[in-house]
Amino acid sequence: MAFTNDELSRSRHFRRELAQTFRSGALMMALVLVIALPAFVVSSTEFAPATPFIVTGAVPVFIAALFGLRLAWDTLGVTVLFVACAELVNPWPWGVAALMAAAGLGLGICARNGWTAVAVQACIWCSLTLIAPPLELPGIDWVSGRLGQVLVPVWMVLMGGLWAVAVSALLNSRLPKLSAKPLNKSSAARYGGALAVLLGSAAFVASTWLTEVTGGWLLLTILVIVRPGLADTWGRVVSRSVGTVLGGAAAALAGSVFVNQPLLLDTLAAVALIVAVVLLVRKANYAVYAFALTIAVVLMNMDGSDVLTADIQRVGFTLAGAMLVAILAASYEFITSRGSLRRVSS
Q1: What is the mean pLDDT of residues 132-146?
Q2: pLDDT for residue 33
Q3: What angle do CA 274, 67, 166 make, to 5 degrees?
Q4: Which pLDDT does position 333 carry in this prediction?
């Protein structure tokens, strides 16, 4: 069978695109795995309970490096400061609420510059460690003191972030590049203001009544659902809910089956995180991204053998956060539509 020149051209183009996607995807997978290496090292030591802080530093810094190494350094500095402040204000509800409200305003500023993806990732991991019981390291008594509660998380975040910067700098020329898409000033201000109100109020509730459970997921849900545009926000309400429920079910099943094999669970968590980051960079279907991210976060923050109860809590907080965002988005849409109708009628 003979092929026309047009068919041959399309075939070559398809093969090139497929090869480029494979190479880039394989590089991303390998790179994120290398960044996760400190987490595996720490998880095998007496500092294992502090492993999530390694990820808190590494993930946002790595994503920032795709925009540029200067932004990666800035992200590392801000993330370290955020974690230090979080450990200092915890467990005072008003301090936690003020910190998350300030984070919401900061997200608006980042959106103005087109760095929303980086800022959201930094806030996601920090919020999960903010609404959580105090860090406990068996056999290391000084960590239970106030100074230890600040120094250990900050050191872990710094270590993960510095490793991410080093690896990104080494492979900088081979990394895919992301371009910033700045928002206009008014949209960024509305976005930051909405997040400040939502995150501040949710943080107060979570730090007052939900400190012994997975209340940080309420903040996480708000962070990943709320977008500068109403259409994007509505789409994420559904996608986030579906992805979280399915991802939570998968993580609960894995945690129940392999409850006595922590190394395997850590490996599954790392693989899920790698997939989530690749999906984020590729701008893939958001429900699939939420599915992978949920598995990673659940397995990384698993405490004890009662995985199912903790997972039900996480799903419940996700649905509650999604419902809260949906109600506020519908209210805003109703108010703005009424205002438009009045202007038209006048």
Answers
A1: 70
A2: 64
A3: 65
A4: 60
| Digit-coded pLDDT (tens) for 167-203 | 888 887 777 788 888 888 888 888 888 888 888 888 8
- Tokens linked to 96: 């936690």
Let me know: does 272 contact 291? Beta carbons within 8 Å: no
pTM greater than 0.85 = no
Neighbour tally for 250: CB within 10 Å: 19
Phi, psi of 282 (to 5 degrees): -80, -5
Write the single-letter amino acid at 52. P
Reading the block at residue 63, the tokens are: 């994503």
CA 200 to the chain's CA centroid? 18
Cβ proximity of 34 and 58 under 8 Å: no
CB 157 within 8 A of CB 55: no
Judge contact between 269 and 294, C-beta under 8 A: no
Q: Which amino acid is at 74?
A: D
Q: Hey, what are 54's tokens?
A: 């390694």
Whats the size of the chain, residue-wise?
A: 346
Phi, psi of 177 (to 5 degrees): -110, 140
Q: pLDDT tens for residues 302-332? A: 665 556 666 676 677 777 777 777 677 666 6
Amino acid at site 280: L
Using CB atoms within 10 A of its CB, is residue 316 exposed (0-12), middle (13-18) or buried (19+)? middle
